[in-house]
Amino acid sequence: MPHVVHLFWAPETTEAFIQAGHFYLWVESAAQAANQSKKRKTRSHPNHLDAERLRDWLKSSLGVTSRESDFVTYPVPLPSSQGSPLPCPELSTSLDAEAYVWNEAEIETWPISCFCFNNRAINLINEIHFRLIFQGEDFKAGSDFLFWYYFTQSLRGILLKDHYIPALRYRAWQTGKHPYEVYTGWEFLSQNYECLIEEGADRLPPAAAPNFEAATVLRHCAEVLLRQATGSARLTQALEKPLADSWLLPACRPTRQEPWLTAGDLTLGKQWATWRKQLSGAAGETGFQLGLQLQEASIEQPDSWRLEFRVISRRDPSL
Known about the structure:
Layout: E1 3-11, E2 21-29, H1 30-35, H2 51-62, E3 71-81, E4 84-85, H3 89-92, E5 106-117, H4 121-135, E6 139-141, H5 143-160, E7 164-172, E8 180-188, H6 191-203, H7 214-231, H8 237-243, H9 248-251, E9 261-263, H10 267-287, E10 288-295, E11 306-313
Parallel strand pairs: 1-6
Antiparallel strand pairs: 1-2, 2-5, 3-4, 3-5, 7-8, 8-9, 10-11
Helix pairs in contact: 4-5, 5-6, 6-7
């Protein structure tokens, strides 16, 4: 009997200004659905792999190592009828359709055992997708998993082209001499990114981000993955030294949640907004590209190699 691998994204619900988020993977089973009684003592999804079996399957079939703390029970809203969740479309053809009352379906919440992750999410989703195609046997990807595969791989292409810039975020948190908290990080600056969000919002299956508005949750997911990508960069001491007195150095550590400083006005933020407007308006998608250039050491100082930030014109790369 087949199994379907599901995947959804959910932001954390905390009071932190910078909100994290996670992917949640779970497996729906047709075999359990066929053998499961509709009368259950516990209120949980009857047709999914529990944490122990899910962990064993990830290890044995996909080669994914995990910890016990990576598995959580998450309440997932699903179409249901007569006290049971309806099977997903990928499983409905394998089950007795007459056993379910489809025209009386209502949304009910079911606790489901999930594998929770956000570290190396783009690579991990790609690896799982590959394994499902060539080694999945009776496991196949659901439409929600396939959507996140499409979205994360499209986002990966934007990341590889360095279509993002340093960013400042202000939080008005109190009154007094320093009413603002200033956070540093990065943000996408790309027409391709805006098109991806627009197209993704139209394609997002409800099960891929339950109870969240499509465009908002896609931006949140992309921003979390961007913070992880930029935060994983390793800076040399030679590169850190010239950045030490600016807000660019803490921007290269965006996984930290504390503010960079507290401020009494919006001066720095307005300067950054002007700079951003110039990049997005004057340069635009085809006008520039951010990059790094390695400067060769001189004969007199053979160990003095330098890595410099560059803004490269797409129209004339020699500039």
